[in-house]
Write a structure and sequence with these properties.
The protein contains twelve helices and twelve strands. It is of the alpha+beta class. The protein has two domains: 244 residues, Alpha-Beta Complex (DNA primase, PRIM domain); 107 residues, no CATH class. Helix 1 packs across helix 2 and helix 5 crosses helix 6.
């Protein structure tokens, strides 16, 4: 471990990482994927606990967080980043795992956070807020299938419930849908216990979670809202749950998303043209002022363009407080799956796009601009009906 740390501290951190890996149970089922989302998105695949420890040691404290894939990754992905960090590339043809890659389910994971104004402004959780998420985590950990087989963890800003499962082969897409269905059912059993506490829907099979023992540097710290090191709250569970295995096998599957008419992706274009758009320039110059709806509008105008997905990540990452590579990928994938149309300029300049405390975005070229959505600046022909 890092020579700047005390040997005793190094030993405790290494032990936490290894115990986390024991719970996840990747050995004999594949390799372990590690992810970083800032300052640059990176990915690594590790074939041993020692490799995971070494990779974490290189980046601990240098990023907002180090994340690990909850489920094991197929061995063939190892060659994309063998025991080393490399730049991450999302989407089809990238080097990050996707839901369809997962071959085994070895753990269930629940992410519990607060929704206070301070957290929404990008600050870490307070001790009082952590106490609230801990109460919900304890409630969840006592449910059938989780009781006696789950570990409560502190992520630094909230709490996790992590339960090892007798490995379930994902030999049919319906298995993944059953897993999602069961996780939602278990989360619903604890949701709404306390106001201001939410359980994030982290039930897709390629999900990642924070590595126990590593520092959570997400958010701007305050005296009463410091950065913390992720750690175990309860003794890590040793026994893999056969009950959860059976519950997954017998769950009602979440209906598959019906196939929708897909708009063309990877449209040939000139992205340099869209850089002249004042909205794109605004998102680059003032990333902290971009509201969630405005960010969604940005994605809707870039996702279908050739090279647009990389540009989405490039611009989104300028907001170091809020950028999350995995969450950005999920929004992009949902938008493509459900065939969203690009948000129009008139909507972008409307009051619904305002971030609290900020003014409405105005485009000085609106009256003279030949297009009604930023996307059209880059394309050579109309794709959507205006």
């Amino acid at each position: 471990m890092n020579s700047t740390k005390d040997n005793a501290v190094n030993g405790v951190i290494e032990a936490m990482i290894c115990r986390h890996l024991d719970i996840l149970g990747h050995t004999s089922h594949g390799v372990t994927e590690l992810r970083l989302f800032d300052p640059f998105a990176q990915v690594a695949y590790a074939d041993s606990p020692k490799a995971v420890v070494d990779l974490c040691d290189k980046m601990d404290g240098k990023t907002t967080g180090i994340y690990v894939g909850v489920q094991p990754r197929p061995v063939h992905l190892f060659d994309l980043a063998p025991n080393r960090w490399v730049p991450a590339r999302g989407g089809a043809g990238g080097n990050c795992s996707r839901d369809e890659d997962i071959e085994y389910i070895t753990a269930a994971f629940f992410d519990i956070d607060v929704t206070s104004p301070a957290r929404q402004e990008g600050h870490p959780a307070s001790d009082e807020e952590l106490a609230l998420t801990l109460r919900v985590a304890q409630q969840m950990a006592g449910q059938d299938g989780l009781a006696a087989h789950s570990t409560v963890c502190c992520s630094g800003n909230g709490h996790y419930v992590l339960a090892p499962i007798v490995a379930v082969p994902v030999d049919d897409p319906e298995v993944a849908r059953k897993f999602t269905s069961l996780c939602r059912q278990l989360a619903d059993g604890a949701a709404g216990q306390l106001p201001g506490v939410r359980i994030d829907a982290v039930y897709n099979t390629s999900r990642v979670m924070r590595v126990m023992g590593t520092v959570n540097r997400k958010g701007e710290p305050l005296p009463d809202r410091p950065h913390r090191r992720a750690h175990f709250v309860t003794e890590p569970a040793q026994d893999r749950s056969m009950m959860l295995y059976e519950m997954i096998r017998n769950a009602d599957a979440v209906p598959a998303t019906p196939a929708a008419p897909r708009l063309p992706t990877g449209l040939r274009c000139n992205l340099r043209k869209i850089e002249k758009c004042e909205f794109i320039r605004y998102c680059r110059r003032r990333p902290q002022e971009v509201s969630e709806p405005a960010w969604f509008a940005l994605i809707s105008n870039l996702a279908y363009l050739q090279g647009g997905i990389d540009l989405i990540h490039e611009i989104s990452a300028l907001d170091t407080r809020r950028y999350d590579y995995a969450n950005t990928e999920r929004v992009i994938e949902r938008m493509l799956r459900e065939s969203y149309k690009p948000v129009r300029c008139a909507t972008i300049m409307g009051p619904d796009m305002v971030r609290p405390g900020r003014g409405v975005f105005r485009c000085s070229q609106a009256a003279r601009c030949p297009v009604r959505t930023p996307m059209y600046l880059a394309t050579s022909h109309a794709v959507y009906t205006r």
